[in-house]
Amino acid sequence: MKKLGILTGGGDAPGLNAVLRAAVKTAVRSYNCEVIGLKDGYDGFLAPGGIIPLGREEVRGILPRGGTILGTANRGNPFAREVLRDGEKVIIDTSNEVIEAIKKQNLDGLIVIGGDGTLNIALELYRKGVPIIGVPKTIDNDVGGTEVTFGFDTALETATEAIDKLHTTAESHHRVMVLELMGRDAGFIALHAGVAGGADVILIPEIPFRYKAILDKINRRVQSGRHFSILAVSEGAKSIEGEQIYSRAGNEIYVPRLGGIGQQVSDYIAKHSEQETRVTVLGHIQRGGSPTPYDRFLATRYGSAATRLAAQGKFGHMVSLQNGHVVDIPLAEALATPKRVNINGDAVRTARDLGICFGDEK
Amino acid sequence: MKKLGILTGGGDAPGLNAVLRAAVKTAVRSYNCEVIGLKDGYDGFLAPGGIIPLGREEVRGILPRGGTILGTANRGNPFAREVLRDGEKVIIDTSNEVIEAIKKQNLDGLIVIGGDGTLNIALELYRKGVPIIGVPKTIDNDVGGTEVTFGFDTALETATEAIDKLHTTAESHHRVMVLELMGRDAGFIALHAGVAGGADVILIPEIPFRYKAILDKINRRVQSGRHFSILAVSEGAKSIEGEQIYSRAGNEIYVPRLGGIGQQVSDYIAKHSEQETRVTVLGHIQRGGSPTPYDRFLATRYGSAATRLAAQGKFGHMVSLQNGHVVDIPLAEALATPKRVNINGDAVRTARDLGICFGDEK
Amino acid sequence: MKKLGILTGGGDAPGLNAVLRAAVKTAVRSYNCEVIGLKDGYDGFLAPGGIIPLGREEVRGILPRGGTILGTANRGNPFAREVLRDGEKVIIDTSNEVIEAIKKQNLDGLIVIGGDGTLNIALELYRKGVPIIGVPKTIDNDVGGTEVTFGFDTALETATEAIDKLHTTAESHHRVMVLELMGRDAGFIALHAGVAGGADVILIPEIPFRYKAILDKINRRVQSGRHFSILAVSEGAKSIEGEQIYSRAGNEIYVPRLGGIGQQVSDYIAKHSEQETRVTVLGHIQRGGSPTPYDRFLATRYGSAATRLAAQGKFGHMVSLQNGHVVDIPLAEALATPKRVNINGDAVRTARDLGICFGDEK
Amino acid sequence: MKKLGILTGGGDAPGLNAVLRAAVKTAVRSYNCEVIGLKDGYDGFLAPGGIIPLGREEVRGILPRGGTILGTANRGNPFAREVLRDGEKVIIDTSNEVIEAIKKQNLDGLIVIGGDGTLNIALELYRKGVPIIGVPKTIDNDVGGTEVTFGFDTALETATEAIDKLHTTAESHHRVMVLELMGRDAGFIALHAGVAGGADVILIPEIPFRYKAILDKINRRVQSGRHFSILAVSEGAKSIEGEQIYSRAGNEIYVPRLGGIGQQVSDYIAKHSEQETRVTVLGHIQRGGSPTPYDRFLATRYGSAATRLAAQGKFGHMVSLQNGHVVDIPLAEALATPKRVNINGDAVRTARDLGICFGDEK
Hints:
The structure is a homotetramer of 362-residue chains.
Chain A: E1 3-8, H1 16-31, E2 34-38, E3 51-53, E4 81-85, E5 88-92, H2 95-104, E6 109-114, H3 116-127, E7 132-136, H4 152-173, E8 175-181, H5 188-197, E9 201-203, H6 211-223, E10 229-234, H7 261-272, E11 276-281, H8 293-312, E12 317-322, E13 325-330, H9 331-336, H10 346-353
Parallel strand pairs in A: 1-2, 1-6, 6-7, 7-12, 8-10, 8-11, 9-10
Antiparallel strand pairs in A: 2-3, 4-5, 12-13
Helix pairs in contact in A: 1-8, 4-5
């Protein structure tokens, strides 16, 4: 193995730099192998200056830093790139161009760190002959084929700290505090942070909710002398009843685009109860910060294992955590079923036993 | 001194419990004095169950906890209480009732912990004969007569941590990240957190800004190869030009009520530049959490000093930090001029020397 | 199920309170079952006032707090209790007395939260007829039969933060910084924190080291221009050569009792190189603090699962984490093989690939 | 002003990099002035490669990082340098050599960031004609002429967090926990962290203590049912009685060199009471870590102000914080009286009112 390429794609996550550092150090030390980094995802192969050397000096000191020194791009799909043509946006397939550029680099392996989107592109490239190794990365923990992805633990810490902070205001002011968290398709952040932070209501995409069930929970708390409640809500949570049931309190015209599900739940409670409510949308803060030790350790193992996989020629595979060990599985298998909260698992069962409301109670 | 009362008013702030603990411990230990706590601000004098005994047991273990064990109320102004009469909200003066209730308690002093609003009420009550001692409290640091108020340092830590976290996403994704912070009238949080977090633009109420100046700063950064920017914006920041200059990108009808100044600034940049933008409104998280050691130390000194002031009979005074020492000044004097960022002071000068844009540049 | 007992034994660990809260809430809500808490481990059955009721009020607000509201005792082994008799310490078997006391309480189950020592006692009691459910707890992560124990992640965070802090001093002062961490028999804390913190040398009980190998590593770093090194050392790390090889620099008489292995390693390096060295023994700080979200979530699931196990009558079993799920296994099986770092696993392999020295290199 | 030099001396402190960044950015942006950095304190003028250019690129991203990118040296006193001559250590005066080297650089100003030692050397150099500007830096907060030095707030946070963590173990295990903190001559860290962390005993150099007074305090706590105590002890705390009063429990030969004052206090309590005790020496961890927002803000203002002072030609002056403003005072004046805890001030008074024992009680 003489030359490896490496890139980061999709939304940034704490631990990306730790993967880069470990992959590079392992390549250089254990395989005496050169590494190049691609800037801003797959775009790096085509853009001028998009390819940079990655040696031990370049990865020095980056272990505890959030983000990615390579940059990332949300839109850089080689199979469907958005370009301007005669002033209009059109989608074109640039995959052949990218594959040509990769071939020119004479890479013995290309390590791709990303979430579902980035890894699906990687799988396509692999099928077209690119020697791909995948490394799963999401804040949301929704990539299949692995027990957990790096970045999740750090996001969980940020989310739980936010709940801890809202608790004191909720109690002191007797308020209902709604915290909207990341998780478009999977509710792991809201579930774990909600349980860890002592939330009273947790709404996740996997369990469609009824507004009335939430209201009942809050009212039961008020009746037992608890004049405040904390709601942890995934951005992807959905009501069984659809969107028409609620309306902005005291506002004739409803403007759905401007408020997320957190705002909608808050509006409903404000309208149908005596409780004062407040919404916080935690947003991009969940993607940032120095990775937790858990994430640094996992990301480092992923990065080093990815280089070893490349040396073994196990292309089309992805590193993965299984029962505490870093192993590997075929990308196709991992991506076949995205990961979701097991609504019959012990975690949800525990939350229900503690009296946490998911909004599907009768 | 045989009996002290104590209450917390206005928005909650980290350190309230530390003040309570220190005031109570000092009263009990050094003066063998009984203390009662009023629940939910001045309301506690009137509401059934609103008066509770505060002894050493009640304040045990609360030093590191955010919020207030007494609860607080934003609306409990005895001089202008909102009540329902025949189904309609009316404002009535209940101050005589409150003063009567206070007299009944035979208090040798009433310690009031609060911000501008709560302390102005306290001053009125003092003028009507209530033996008031004030303790200044704000997240925003906008109470006059003192170098700093407790709660500010903790809010600053939360705000700076948010900027640190946004930095990695901004850099990795080449984005403009706008962070809206607390500060309706005073820009201390945005100024301090902005400087401490390395923001590129800081917008505060004390310095009206022009949108164009912000855009120029962002464009200059892009030209010098810095494709991201961080903006720290006080919720009370205002444009010189007023509100009509910007409009929601690609949105015919402008709905000003729904977006704060952070959103407006973000919309303007998105419309007038190539930069991708994102807004985060940090909100109530800034009020929460365990107080920093700085705030715990200051709040403890305030609480203890307030009890000593009561023992000396220095009513109508407020504890205050002056050049590192806790002293006291008349409430009337402290409240005469609210505190604002000194726009000619060394802090703003330093920020300008570092190249930070305040939006008033030509 | 009408009545459950619960106790915490051994060294305290972050998450104990979260287990108590979840076990109690699950018992009360889902099984309408009464719970009693035993103070200071098994001692609670015998000491006056050692049994207290645990209801929802008693466990309110304890989720984020370190330590245990029940107290714990390191010496309370009912099978070998140290007592004073005629002024001398003697060891006596008080197990029958304890078993009698347990019977008197008419418990339908006794949940025991503890490490190896506490759980082995629990197993003995189970064999004598006590309806025991075990919950594994260690800072060191050395209990067998489970992927991980709660408390470890928090200790790891504290240890890694310490390494992060030592890094800046090491670099600024060109020093060798030695950090001694917990781990008498298992090196998990030093291994994980060492990798997560970017240590240069990691010494663990599972890999006996040679002093010379450490020195060589440090010298190689100096030769390549890195004039500082960070060593993460388990308190139970041992040299192959035994203790006689080193001696306190410039000190004729060697006093082994007074310095741990961290001090010994530091002395050796100071004596045999030009490098300035400093030792920090992190000690009990590793046991404290608010549990991380990871530990709170795991501890909560453990507590709730323990109550459900009791309801199912699966006595003599312990809750356990397997591939992300909380399951249960027989205590006898779990305790048969204590957990140790797998020195052929991917984590150690990764550390070696990164160039980290374990002291067994040739 | 065309060329500035800058160096950091003495023990490292969080915020050094923030000073460097602000000084450099202000010099480059506002004065178009070149800056050179000296590596490892005054040594940089003499050592090969000891002078490096500091521009905007060099200081990018260092604001939140602990330590100093310039390195520092504890021994680099130009007036009394330790050198090897014929195999023996001798002290020689190299100040003329250093002054010559400084002159060769044609500096319009030399900014020196350091504590008492480094600044006293700076004052000597100033008297010999070097255009010095001082910036005060200490963890201990013991530099005179300024309300506070940067680095102190971060050390305080680390120390308080340690007390918070020891609290849970102390309570759970019914132990006396002794925490030895930095502060050879001034007790600010122990005083502030002790009050902020709720310590029961605080021992500082400014208040000589009697062992018996500490023991009495601990026994009084036990009698009132509090079977644990927390002691915050400055490394420089001293007993009135001297060292002979205590002896290592059950140890014939007393070895004073090996245990600090924390160990001695712990030994005394263990010997004279029934209480179990544990000591933690926090050590170098107090110097490390990312500076708090407070320290970043202050350090940034100091750095920028230092450059402005140089531009004004106010040599022999030091930047200083006075009542919230950064001003300047003559170095000679600032260094005349080192800063100590005011034992009659409101902070110590408050601690006494809370029942905290300083060991001088009768």
